[in-house]
Every structure is written in structure tokens, then in C-alpha cells.
Amino acid sequence: MHDTRIGKRFIGPSEPPFIIAELSGNHSQDFDLAKKMVEAAAKSGAHAIKLQTYTADSMTLDIENDEFVIQEEDNLWRGESLHALYKKAATPYEWHEPLFKLANSLGMVAFSSPFDADAVDFLDNLNVPCFKIASFELTDIPLIAYAASKGKPLIMSTGMASLQEIEMAVACAKHNGCDDIILLKCTSTYPADPGNSNLMTIPNMRDAFGCQVGLSDHTGGIGVAVASTALGATVIEKHFVLDRNAGGVDAAFSLEPAELSQLVTETERAWLALGHVRYGATGAEEKSKQYRRSVYVSRDMDAGESFSEKNLKVVRPAFGLAPCHFASLMGKKAATALKKGTALKWEQVVS
User: Fold this and answer.
1) Domain count within the chain
2) Domain housing 345
């Protein structure tokens, strides 16, 4: 498994997790707000921003019968027609280039999720460094084939997908010229319950497909994302908003700037902490060994006096004999007079 280069950044186990701030429709179709979101994401330390490239008409039909209206009682968008929701959440195509340029100028990678072939061409003409395939499009094999044919890395979310469906998507991408694939474990509920995250799938998916695996996370907070780092996630995508209370279609499960900053910091800490299998003191711990316990004289002793629990004690620091010798010292004699506080050495013991 090799590192993937996206823009000027490398993604892989040898790098801290790649943090993507998903703007989604939280800009509420206010261009100035969208720019502020990009600037805030950069200030928070995100490595990338991601948009979604579609129109309401490219996503669905403008019909309001039951099949085209969200019905589930626990759905964040219950009662909305699909067309109206996508129209409200869409990022205007004319915003893409200036937002990408702004993100790049602030040191971030910028890309998007295309939802049809025209969107793939549009993004390719803007020289995006990769494409993201959304969970709901993972079974859109024609879309994956066309995106893969552009010769760029693919990041693919796997929410709801069976193993067979993921296999089909990966095979399609490879058949059409893309070998640089990153899969994202995802739970496609909005918001998602941490109990449904099943992060143990991450290493299993990595082994099954021989590629990097990350997390597209719709839970609240950063706990699930930090945990995913310990399981080898190399990419973490979270929806982003300036202020949850101000609204936005995905605001309820999006991170605010301070939380995004915390996510960047804590996932890097988790990644640094993984290290490798090691026993014994690290170089940084060597000085601390002196504060272990050892055998000390606990009251003044005469030469020839026998050692007992009344005149020896196992205490800190560790300049005397190791505690494992304490029992064998009982009954042996002091070679010389010893003061209280003497770190006992073998040369002070008569066998």
C-alpha cells in the first residue's frame, strides 16, 4: 500500500490523518459566507476543503409525489422534496473556481464530489487533484467509470454498501485506469449514532482491498474520528459550519471552527501515539528510572549487624539494590557501619 499524492500533500500511514472540511450546503448559497468558511477551515488547520458539484436537476426529478419527498420521521429533512432540498443545498458552479483558488492560496487542497458526467468534466477542467464519490453514488458504476478515466485519485465513501458493492466499485475504478483509491468507512445517517459507526471495519476493509481507508463521519463531536485514527484511518472527512445555531442544511452534524481545530490536533496526537511495538524504556524515559524503588538502610546499623525488615526498606529512589533482592538480604550482615539513608550495595553485605 503506497502513499497517495493529492495536490501538494501526501496521504498515508506515514503522515498524520488528512482532514477534509466538507462545506456541503452549509453556505446557504451565500458566497461571502462560503468564503468565510474556507478561511475558517484554513485557520483551523484543515488540510482540504470539499464541495459538492451538482444541480437539483442533475440529482433528481422535479416531482412531489411520495417517492420524491423525504418521509422518514427521524430524518433531518423530513417533508422536503428531493428537488427542493438539492436546489437549496447546491453550490453554484460559478463559485467553484474562486473557492478553489482561495483554498489553494491558504495552503489547502480543494476538490469536490461530482454527481454526474458533466460535473466530472467541469471539475476536470478546473484541474482538481482528485474526485470524491459520495456514498449514495457508490453504486453508480457509470459515474465511477467516467471519473476513474480522468487519471486522478478517487476517494470513495462506502455508506450502506455491501462488500460486493464495494468490490464492484473498486473493480470498476481499476478497470477504467484508477489504481489510486482511498475508501472511506461511512454511516449514511444524518446525524449518525456512534454506536452504528463500526470502526472495526476500517482495518478489515484495508486488508480486503489493499488500499488506504479513512472515515467520512456524520457523528457529533470528534471522538469517533480520533478513535478511527487508532485503527489506521488516513483520511477523515467532517461537515463544517461556522455556527450551528445559524443554520445550514447539514449544521446539526457539522463541526464549528474550534471543534475542527481540535480534530486536527487530536487526530495528529493519536497518530503520533501509535508508534510501533516496543517494550523497555524509551530514550525519553531513561532519566525516570532513578525514581523506581530500591533497597535502602532505614536506620543506623553497626558493622556485623544482621539485616531485617527493621533496618532495611524498599523505597524510592533506585540507587540501591533492586527490590527483588530484598528477601535474600534478610539475615545477612552489614560489612561496615551503615547510616540511615544509605543505598545498599553488594559490597556492603557479608554473605
Assistant:
1) 2
2) 285-350
